[in-house]
Amino acid sequence: MSRGLRNCNPGNIRRSIARYRGEVQPSQDPAFKQFESLEWGYRAIFVTLDTYQRKHGLRTIAEMIGRWAPPTENHTRAYVQAVARQAGIAPCREINTRDRATMIPMVAAMSRIENGEPANRKALERGWELFMDSHGTKQKA
C-alpha cells in the first residue's frame, strides 16, 4: 500500500500549519499529513484546489498542478499532462473548482498519480460531498 493511502492522504499533502477537518494530529508521518479516513483526505484535496483558485487566482490544471507538484520535487509537466489526459480536460482550460463534473475526474487522476492505483471512487465521491457541505453549496452526487 502506498504511503498516501496508508495515511488516508491520497493527495500526499505535506505537513504544514494549515489544518483540515478530519486531520489526525499529530501526524505520525514525519513529512505528510494523516487523515481519519480517505474521505477526509479527498476532501482536503478539494479544499486545497479550491483555495488555489479563490485565494491565489489559479484557474487551470497546469497552474494548479504547478503549485501542487512544483518542479523542485516533481516532473510537473508530465504530472499536468497525465491529469489532463485522465480527466479529459485541456491543461490550459479554465476550470471551476466547485463543479463536480470537473473536479471528481481531476482529483481521481491526481490520486492515481500520487498512489499508483485508481482512486477509491466511493471515498472520492464522499470527500466531494464533505467538501460541498462545508462550503454551503450542496450538489447532488
What labels would you give this structure?
mainly alpha; two-stranded antiparallel ribbon; 141 residues; 52% helix; 2 strands; single chain
Would you write up a description of this structure?
- The chain is mostly helical.
- The chain has a domain at 38-134.
- Helices cover 52% and strands 3% of the residues.
- The chain has helices at 3-6, 38-56, 61-68, 76-87, 100-115, 121-134, and strands at residues 23-24, 34-35.
- The chain has a two-stranded antiparallel ribbon.
- The model has no long low-confidence stretch (mean pLDDT 94).
Topology (elements, then pairings):
Elements: H1 3-6, E1 23-24, E2 34-35, H2 38-56, H3 61-68, H4 76-87, H5 100-115, H6 121-134
Antiparallel strand pairs: 1-2
Helix pairs in contact: 2-6, 3-4, 4-5, 5-6
